[in-house]
Amino acid sequence: MTESASESPRVSRHALERLLHPRSIAIVGASDVPESIGGAPIALIERFGYDGEVHLVSRTRTHINERPCVNSIDDLPYGVDALVLAIPKIGVVDALEAAGRRGVGGAIVFSSGYAEADSEGAADQLDLAVLARKYDIALAGPNCLGLINFTHSVPLTFGDASPNRRFDGPSLAIIAQSGAMSLALTYAAMAQDIAVSYTISTGNEAVLGIEDYLGVILDQDGPRAVALLVEQIRRPTEFIELARVARERGIALCVLHTGRSERGQAASLSHTGAIAGDQALMRAVLGREGVLFIDSLDELIDTACVVVKCPAPSAYGVAFMTDSGAAKTHAIDVGDDIGLLLPELTAPTLRQLTEELPSYALASNPVDITAMGLNDPSLYGRVASTLLSDDQVGCLVVSAMPGSHVQGTQQVDALLPVLARADKPVIYTIMGGDSPLPPENIAKIFDAGLPLFRSPERALRAARNVTHLARTFNDAARRSVPGVYEALDIDPSRPMSEHEAKSLLSHAGLRVPDGGVANDVDAALEVAARIGYPVILKIASAQILHKSDVGGVIMVSDEQGLTRAYEQMLKRVRSSRPDASIEGVLVEEAVIGGVEMIVGARRDAAWGDTVLIGLGGVWAEVFNDAVVVSADADRAEILTAIESLRGSATLHGVRGGPMSDIDALVRAVELIAGLLRATPTSVEIEINPLVVLQAGDGVAALDAIIVTQASPG
Q1: Could you give phi then psi for residue 421, rounded to 5 degrees?
Q2: How many domains does the chain contain in total?
């Protein structure tokens, strides 16, 4: 087979719907051993009570569990919706060909040894893809654990699973490229009493990928969140559009992305690509559409749990209520560490808390009700009600000690009438780790529809995520349209020198140092005399992007220094880079003072146009204090990104120093991003350093790189 899987057409949505919602199932390689790969799907079908047609294919058995078996796929009735291939790899191609002849809608390939193994396996996987597309078969896998449609009781997997306890209300869908982790996440979700609608293991994604399944799930009524564990997003453009659809429909996409690619760093000619790898670009673009990127398995399910069970936050602040002074202090520390907003409470709330709390307790956020809750359990409910009524509070975390059986029950009974009717997210945390809780109390909490955590840190991280999600969704609705800029006049057939790049940027409205290119010492002296000393000398060559690396930058303060430095620089650079074409020496005014930043706009084939903002100069890659935003970010988003930098305090004046012109920095970022968007031949526009002068004095681009499609590298 010579047809390329990447060039052949996608399978139809109808075929995928048949796989996910089958009215008939066939299991090839059926076994009478329930624990085997061929026997587990049969056992699960019976456990789930699947009510469609079930056909078994076995070469050795005539019946399994009183169900008749046929000898081959050719003996199946025409048009089976879903085929489970529980057979060794050697028989999969023939089985898929037979399935195509019999009009099968979708097929699941459990077997491994394909692209995850070696190049020969990758070629075998391509054969499967070509066959599937030839016959319009929605192929899941290979090397996958299959899928479960819990809503319609369809278990197409050999992994152990049980039906939901809950089938009503909002639900969670789980998609993982790892089969084992798809079930692990499912177990974790069900332990939180979450209604799971789908669990899907995508495996090697020979045909069906994350994007295909996600497109179907987003069209369903039930899912409020999708938990995704991915190693690679193979179709970024499509995923971005699906993320936008999810945001518009109020469905949270919670992503744990494992692994980091170095493709972006290796391919880059500038600092921008070295600092902003593929994952940073992905997070910037998808994060703007409301995708939550999460760093641990616990946090993934915790966040999804709160999204599914709770209303959306009406504000972005989190209130923390506890019965332990140490837990209160710890909550403040954790909040500072993770960037959680624990806002000051309003005056009416503080007055009410002062009336409710014992005289020795401080009315604040976080609030410690002290051990008085043991004597008066109703205090838990009264304080929770007061906190929930505050307009600054968008989410409430209640973190309490378990107490004795009686005390724990009194606490739960006092809190649930308040928490269950809250119109804001509430996370109930009972500290004490894995110490046992009365089962009846757990049941009460779950029946009230509340998340139950055993760790305040996990609760606070989940609270941060859901409030961040609400802010992102709301900001997107108010997002301003980016400005329109004139394209840079670039000749992509040749590389561009710093002086040419600066000339273009100056014409577009960005301040650059005064100066010019000199071809000999006398010309350099004339330029310096015109602009005044001190001046900066830089080697002028389109082939040398990082001039300081080859000794191609020096500041001189008088004529004698310039005369000496000119010839020394040329000699040093020609020795270091004999291959480079040297135009001469760029003589520029020395811009003194300010904070050095880096601003790099970059076009990525996968993730589109993004902008990196960070501390600049020669330390850009050393400190790696940078953030990436979408190139169509508005000024509010750009300002938020700048203030998120660890070094942002340097822009606000240090030890009595002047305030920097942050407004000018924001405008410069917006300009550079707009120029990249408007110029189809540009791949990167990098300003490093972009000096931010004191308030009112603007910014200046001290160095500039414009990389085009035809530039080297």
Answers
A1: -100, 10
A2: 5
Do 303 and 316 lie in one domain? The reply is no
Angle between helices 521-531 and 559-576 in degrees, nearest 10: 130
Q: Give the Cβ contact number of residue 23 at 10 Å.
A: 15
Pairing of strands 452-453, 515-518: unpaired
Place of tokens 């408007």: 678
Residues whose CB is less than 8 angstroms from the CB of residue 535 and which lie 6 or more positions away in sequence, other chains included: 515, 527, 528, 555, 556, 562, 587, 588, 589, 590
Please say whether the beta carbons of 603 and 682 come within 8 A.
yes
Taking only the tens place, the pLDDT of each residue in 412-461 is 999 999 999 999 999 999 999 999 999 999 999 999 999 999 999 999 99
Q: Are residues 609 and 551 in the same domain?
A: no
| Ranges assigned E (strand) in 212-335 | 223-230, 252-257, 292-293, 317-322
Which position has the token pair 């869908």?
Answer: 173
Domain that holds residue 563: 514-589
Give helix 236-248 / helix 456-478 axis angle, nearest 10°: 90
Contact 607, 278 (CB under 8 A): yes
C-alpha to C-alpha distances, 592 to 536, 596, 697, 706, nearest whole angstrom: 11, 11, 12, 24
Spatial separation of the C-alpha atoms in residues 315 and 319, rounded to whole Å: 11
Does 35 fall in a domain? yes
